[in-house]
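Exercise 3.2. Students should predict the tertiary structure of the chain below and write it as structure tokens, then compare their answer with the key that follows.

Predict this chain's 3D structure.
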Amino acid sequence: MKRLVPYYAKVVENWGIEHEIMLSRMEMDPARMDLLYGFFNTYLYLNAKEEEQMAEEIAKLPKEEAKKLFKNPNVYYEKGKKEGIEEGIEKGIEQGLVQGIEKGLEQGIEHGIKKVITNMLQKGFSDEIIADVSGVDREEIKKLKRRVCD
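Answer key:
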């Protein structure tokens, strides 16, 4: 059985970029265009060499004509969408890690300050000195004092 020739490669091999331009100029409603391109993209694939060949052909086109091609639903659209999603996930994970580390550090510092305050209370330091040294307001110190004494 003959290998399925990628749609875009077939365009380049048999009809050239003109066929793709013709499809981009067709005035079909979006549903029909999606159906047509969906068929091509489902059953006909590009390998790396064919993708490169198509990109070279598109690069030779006038800017406006090339833009029209990329507006149509096609492999490049899906590939870009997939890459965009992957990049978004990657950035989201990075941002989540940074926020997690920041929040963890913040909580760790807060926990450490409370531990020092608790130790100072157990050693008999006055609320005034503890507030002055720790920078924590006296109300918070009183709350911690109630917990330590209970």
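Discussion points: Confidence is low (pLDDT under 50) at residues 1-9. Residues 75-122 form the longest helix (48 residues).
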